[in-house]
Amino acid sequence: MNTARVSAYAKLNLTLDILGASGGYHELESAVVTIDLADRIVARRRGDGLCTVLMHGEGCETLEPEHNQALIAAEKFVKRFGTEGADITVWKNIPVGAGLGGSSADAAGALNALAMLYGVDDRAALKELADECGSDTGFLLGGGAAVIGGRGEKVYPIPAFPKVYALLLCPKEGVSTAECYRKFDELNTPSPRRTPLFTEAIASGASHAGRFLGNALFPAARELAPSVGEALLELKALSPLGASMTGSGSAVFALFETPELVSWAKSRYNGNCRAYAVKSVFPRR
Q1: Among 11, 76, 127, 183, which one carries the catalytic annotation?
Q2: Structure confidence at residue 107 (pLDDT)
Q3: Do both 171 and 126 map to the same domain?
Q4: Closest to 53 measured CA to CA, from 107, 116, 123, 13
Q5: Which one is catalytic: 92, 106, 136, 183?
Q6: How far apart are CA 162 and CA 218, in angstroms?
Q7: What pLDDT does 285 receive?
Q8: Within a domain: residue 13?
Q9: Are 244 and 168 a contacting pair, CB within 8 Å?
Q10: Which one, of 52, 17, 270, 42, lies nearest residue 167 by Cα?
Q11: What pLDDT score was predicted for residue 282?
């Protein structure tokens, strides 16, 4: 095989609880699911052991190599498995700074593409590399639905997860993850623990679980980017099953019972955010 092509899927944090802090990091508990908004990654074999990454879209063309998670992941792969390198092209569709896990998805996608290219099927070793690349990368390596814990490296798949449909709004202004956590610490706003309630309810379907959506980082993100709060109010006006923010923002989403209702809600939305009709996706790796 000389060329490998994979999709790198975005994720939604259906819940995001912060349980405390340890070693300078926040301890998370979050119910997450991958959605059919994805970056496209193509890896082509090269024979000198080097890796390159070329980005297209979402303003990422000038991303510096030291900040390019796909390149970092690819170099880790070559070092770990002793393979030759690859020229990797990433076509970005996942908005940047939206809390959708775009850079982590690209890192996971690079690992999956190189694994396909070089016939590596050691998923445990790939997971170790993914965890070195970022808090969501280990989950996004396989995707689906799970509860993630710790700094995101603990992944507990949720069995029999139902299909979920959502309207996703992405405000024009992004939110820095680091700044959002700093603001969270500064505000010290109490937040109920929602993840166990959500995971229990989702077994009976999205219509039962919608009321347990929630994100402990929302007050902080709203302080940093008021458009996050405005977008969430716009979604709630469309009578969804529930609505919340994903990651550290700025994207917000609302769940609906059917794709037809998502299409209806999107047709009624007339705000300033980019709007996407999305659904859960369960990749096969």
Answers
A1: 11
A2: 98
A3: no
A4: 107
A5: 136
A6: 25
A7: 67
A8: yes
A9: no
A10: 270
A11: 96
